[in-house]
Amino acid sequence: xxxxxxxxxxxxxxxxxxxxxxxxIFLLSLIIGLLAGLIxxxxxxxxxxxxxxxEKGIILSENSIYFILPIVGLFLVYLFVKYISKQPSEHAIPxxxxxxxxxxxxxxxxxxxxxxxxxxxxxxxxGSVGLLGPAIASASALSSNFSRLLHIDRKTRSLLIACAAxxxxxxxxxxxxxxxxxxxxVFSLDLTFASLLPLLMASVSxxxxxxxxxxxxVLFEFSVSDKFVIKDTLFYILLxxxxxxxxxxxxxxxxxxxxxxxxxxxxxxxxxxxxxAIGVMLFFIPPLYGEGFGFIxxxxxxNDIEALGNTPFDSHLDxxxxxIGLLFGITIFKAIxxxxxxxxxxxxxxxxxTLVMGSALGNVVAKVIxxxxxxxxxxxxxxxxxxxxxxxxxxxxxxLTAIFLIAEITGGxxxxxxxxxxxxxxxxxxxxxLDHTIYTKELLEKGxxxxxxxxxxxxxLMKLDSVxxxxxxxxxxxxxxxxxxxxxxxxxxRNLFPVTDNEKNxxxxxxxxxxxxxxxxxxxxxxxxxxxxxxxxPEIIYYxxxxxxxxxxxxxxxKAWNLPVIRDDKYYGFVSKSKLLTAYRRELxxxxx
Length: 593
Fold this sequence. Notes:
Its main location: membrane. By secondary structure, the protein is mainly alpha-helical.
């Protein structure tokens, strides 16, 4: 046995003898938080190093060729994917949620380091996406494989993956409370002491790691100078409505642009079309370049001209309505640029682009209110911040995450009331307009979506294979009654028989009750066939299509005790209601314990 395996075995034996399960989870959450913090620091520093090379090399706007850089970055990612990883990039959160629901929280170990390469290439060269998603993806993959190495069960492994995600957010934003709430809202964790304390420990561990390597610098240089006043309530409601509509637009653009690029047959075609589209957008709208933190910070300190950068409209920026129009253009095109970067093969996240779009929209709303000629005056900096919360609440369906993220970024809770007004309004509008988010729509279609609804989550975690029974004797339609009794009934302990043809195509079923009255009438043994007694099942389960929730609904509708399963258009087996309910009860106990 290899030395490594012997050491690991001894370590696990020692742990079982001396460390309780609860304390072991606490220890692992601290380690996971530390590792997530290191990953976040690494991915940020690599990206900033790439950006610094271009800035020092005077490649950016001074030479007016900065808009070419994202194409170069996407091309490098394309080469990496084609010749090294040989796996297309996946969106971080949906892929993690799918692993939690359908793969027992097991994530390919290669996903630990792939995002650490492709994300800096995408963002460092100016791709209009964020680094948070890749940091979460890498940290979650590390947590998953670390848990497998230590033989952690599925439920605890899922919790530690959520700890990794919370750690990455806490490290990048230095906002541990928002990180915990994000894990609860997006990963649909139960808010219990058993889950809350590990998340808290992971977040704190990650934040301390970030402070150790990056100091006390923050993403947004801001302190609240204009407090909330009651007369501005209507304007914050208006902002909530605006961010709610904008979040619906954000999601619609995401799915629309993605569907357009899905029509292209090859990754090379996507790269060429997407790269050119991004280049054109950057040429006319420079703030779309990169993550956009500089843009947000300039808006927060009121430096609109610096935020907009060099544009074809520089000579007209003394007109406030031109500035408003350009900022609104950023609101419109940020979602397009972000999705195009993804569709062209880039790697990144949607959370930071959402913040950029929200900041632009919030600033636009404030400027319109202040310059409409009605004598109103609101804080543009506050609206910029709260616009970010509104977009996050709507796009992610995570209002509490949005509220606490911005509250922690500002270093206080002076804006807590307007944050609640805008975030809740945005969430309500988006929730009524779209049932599911960018993260969850595809998972819902696959039947792989975990929610706060325990019944649905348990059904999602269940696997159809675990309840399929195949110990049924197959009959053929041309078999005589005598052959059926001799080769079927006498050799089976079941009261149900599938009828198939020679190619295993499913034709129907025979119940023992259907032949009970004639099974001892020997005069019918050679004159009647299986086809005489065959009937159609009340419902059919399709292996490739039906989720466990659909299977349960088919049993409820049909009131049947057994339903046949078809796989690849062939008979595959039966699911019994008793086995299904037993498996459901067992999974529910594991899920809630």
